[in-house]
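stage 2 :: seqdesign
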């Protein structure tokens, strides 16, 4: 029942997010969405962490895929968690949320929603961690810090990282989002790291 409610709220937010002024936005870019206090409040009641992005593309792009990659101590262990592909046209919104499950400390739930041209696609997916789970781990999350980020290739929208060593935990540097492959070793300092990625398809 909880996952149905979360999906409902995701769809609600996607449908009612105010459209931004396209006159001041570059084509074929995405950026972190500016949410109202009301929208932030709705998200905070349905998820532990959330990221919302607006995109603006030309007619050559037909679809967008969003998925999660999981790394353990820098090693890729799953490259297609919560994978969603949807048709897109001109403008749209991507929303991603993460929630802890109530009865299982070893499990998290991811929700992905994509809205464009009046249509909305969404899904939820679960991931389980071995050992003692997430309860006693520190968490840090970051979204891509760039503005008007080009929609070319596979991009990292955001990251959610866990570590048992809370005394020295720090965010991923901005350079990581600019060159993921060249800085992939930055993930080695986290016990578990989730990268939320996207790719626009022509």
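stage 2 :: out
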């Amino acid at each position: 029942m909880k996952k149905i409610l979360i999906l409902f709220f995701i769809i609600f937010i996607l449908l009612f997010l105010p459209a931004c002024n396209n006159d001041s936005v570059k084509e074929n870019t995405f950026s972190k969405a500016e949410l109202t206090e009301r929208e932030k409040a709705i998200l905070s009641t349905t998820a532990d962490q959330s990221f919302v992005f607006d995109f603006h593309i030309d007619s050559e792009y037909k679809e967008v895929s969003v998925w999660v990659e999981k790394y353990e101590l820098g090693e890729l262990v799953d490259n297609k968690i919560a994978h969603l592909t949807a048709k897109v046209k001109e403008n749209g919104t991507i929303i991603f949320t993460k929630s802890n499950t109530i009865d299982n400390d070893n499990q998290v739930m991811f929700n992905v929603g994509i809205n464009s041209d009046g249509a909305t696609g969404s899904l939820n997916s679960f991931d389980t961690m071995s050992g003692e789970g997430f309860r006693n781990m520190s968490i840090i999350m970051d979204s891509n810090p760039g503005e008007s980020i080009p929609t070319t290739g596979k991009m990292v929208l955001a990251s959610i990282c866990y570590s048992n060593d809370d005394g020295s935990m720090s965010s991923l540097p901005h350079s990581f989002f600019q060159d993921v492959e060249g800085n992939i070793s930055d993930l080695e300092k986290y016990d578990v790291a989730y990268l939320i990625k996207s790719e626009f398809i022509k």
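stage 3 :: structure notes
- Helices lie at 2-16, 37-46, 174-178.
- DSSP finds three helices and eleven strands in the chain.
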